[in-house]
Amino acid sequence: MRSSWLLFTIVLLASLYAMTIAPDGMKLPIHWNLSGEVDDEMNAKTALWVMPAIIFGILLLASALTYIEPRKDNLQKSSKARSWIVLAITIFMSTLAMSNVAKVMGYGL
C-alpha cells in the first residue's frame, strides 16, 4: 500500500505543478468511448485535480477497510492480493492523470 501512496504523492505534485502552468481556457480529456476517442473534455485546471482526488478516495477507502471490515481475519488473509489490486488501480489512474499533466506541459499524447 505504501507504493500506492507514494505514486499518489508524485501524481499530486505533478498535477499541482501543471495547474500553475496550464493556460486559461485549455481543455483536457476526461472521458473516452469504447473506440478510444475522447467524448468529453473539462477545463484543464479542474481536470488536473479530479484524477488525484479520485485516487485519494480509492486509497482512503482501501486503507479504511482494515478498520471497517467486520471479518478482519479474512481481510488479513487477502492483504497481499488487496495491496496488488489497489496498486494496479493506482497505476492505471495515475497513467491517466499523468497523460493530462504531459499534455499541459506540451507533450502530445
TrEMBL record:
<keyword id="KW-0472">Membrane</keyword>
<feature type="transmembrane region" description="Helical">
    <location>
        <begin position="81"/>
        <end position="102"/>
    </location>
</feature>
<feature type="transmembrane region" description="Helical">
    <location>
        <begin position="47"/>
        <end position="69"/>
    </location>
</feature>
<dbReference type="InterPro" id="IPR012867">
    <property type="entry name" value="DUF1648"/>
</dbReference>
<keyword id="KW-1133">Transmembrane helix</keyword>
<protein>
    <recommendedName>
        <fullName>DUF1648 domain-containing protein</fullName>
    </recommendedName>
</protein>
<dbReference type="Pfam" id="PF07853">
    <property type="entry name" value="DUF1648"/>
</dbReference>
<keyword id="KW-0812">Transmembrane</keyword>
<dbReference type="GO" id="GO:0009636">
    <property type="term" value="P:response to toxic substance"/>
</dbReference>
<feature type="domain" description="DUF1648">
    <location>
        <begin position="7"/>
        <end position="55"/>
    </location>
</feature>
